[in-house]
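Hi W.,

Here's what went into the run:
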Amino acid sequence: MKQANFGSLLTRRDFMARSALLGAGTLLTSSWAFGETQTKPIAAASSNDIQIAIVGVGAQGRILMDALLQIPNIRVRAVCDIWDYARKYAVNKLKQAGMEATGYIDIEEMLQKEKLDAVVIATPDFWHAPHTNLCLKAGLHVYCEKMMSNTVEGARSMVRTMRETGKLLQIGHQRRSNPRYMHSLFNLIQKGNLLGKMTCASAQWNRAVAEDVGFPKAYEIPAATLSRFGFKDMHQFRNWRWFRDLSGGPISDLGAHQIDIFNWYFGVRPKSLMASGGTDYYQGREHYDNVMVVYEYPLAHGTARAFYQVQTTTSSGGGYFELFNGDQGSLQISENPRLTKVYRETTAPSWEPLVEKHYLAKSAYVAPSAEKVDSRESKPPEGFEIPVVLNKKLHQPHLENFFDVVRGKGQLTCAADHAFESEASIFPVNAAVEARKVIDLTPEMFAV
Amino acid sequence: MKIIIQSLSAIYQSPSILSFWLLRLWLGFRALLTGIEKFSGYKIVQEPLLDETGNPDITGAIVEVKYKFYALANYHGLPEALSANFKKEPLLHPFLLNAYATVLGPLLLLTGGCLLLGLFTRLSLYVMGLLYISLTFGLIMINQNDGIAALAVHVGLCAYALHLSVHNKLEIVR
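Here's what came out:
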């Protein structure tokens, strides 16, 4: 796997030097924290601690914070968010966990005042590139949520800055560190050739109707602050995912995770895409509320097509999963283990040896009756389970991978250049819907 | 030595003795093992996935592996699905059903064990036959004809074994 330059990874000496500075730094900075003074001694810091900040503590930031709190030797020193409501929640939550974090509105002020090793960025998409580039240039390693940016140029700039600074940039496609996804790809598909020749794939995220999110009136952000940070009003701040200048819409919010799995599992870039979609249900939302897209992947044995759909008006149809079909078997995988299943075609060799090695487990799945309704029906495939479990928060392994590499151990599972390879094929989807034509994905589109 | 050879030869010459032993073995093991299985259960253990060399897999995956084990705490007199069907039957009172489920396993163990050891052979066979008849009664209620037919064969074997028991030559208490 290609990797960013890790020449400037933190050494133990760096940690110790920074820890020494930290003592003074903490005293100096705690009084800046919007009246949040240090009331509780900080839990004993270790020279092995990584000092971090969380930038953006909205819904996704909270999920990452919850996962971070499970990882030993991570000290959250600061949180940055323009919304008092979110920022205070985060500071209080960290205090409960024994960490005195200082709250900031302005990221530049935070970088100036805090001595940090890394940041975790979970701001709205249109802020990802500016925030990431700023932090990388400030000498910090960065974990940034996906999509990398709301524009392909923004994403490209992040890869360039990563390469220029030699700092780490992990993108939050967390499935890439999920042991069930890794096991399925490395052991079942690559090593075990369980699916045979992969001929097609499909994936979906079907979500029920959800109204716009609101906010407590008492916590409304002043108009000047909203404007300074690129928001028209509070409604747009809370519902930024539906605005074209701020995000890529459902195809990037939800689809990016799963289309990334197409690219990762097929191991090649798609060569073209065609798409259809529309704002057919919700009034006043700028982004398409449903999108269907078909990619073509040039595999060694021929073209494999991958269909993806995101629906925001129904939760039926199986929820969210990715399904890969081959001539020997099929793999349906999801972050939800209950939606994961493997099917063996009746003509494929026995999978019993894999069951004995615990690569697979027998399924309670009962194939539909062997009695055919239509003479053209195939025999039903045999169902198996993947017995791999994840006893951690969903995002924890991906964050752990990032911090392991910060400590000099292993490689990033989703460095920005790899993420860009994937995301470069997602950015053109909305344009394809609009143009109503096939878009060829040329090598230039993937170039940084 | 000569006496032993003569005895074995006599047994070999007697189809009735051999027939009884075959039935005794089959019925004994059938009841004993069915009784033992009523104490079986499964536990799910999480352990690291191992690669071909026996080392933890590079993915760091933890797998759930199902192991069968036996314990008194696992005891289930009647299979869950069967029990649920019985509970819907008005002629099968829940109290009687629970009492029956409680004694069924121990009775199978006892009759199977006794039959194999040659303890109270005829009584064991008779009680075993009654047990299979009682099970038939339940299956009639829930209309499981395949099970009824299988139990009829069991009862028939018990009856035939009783008939042949006069030819038994290896028993501690008749």
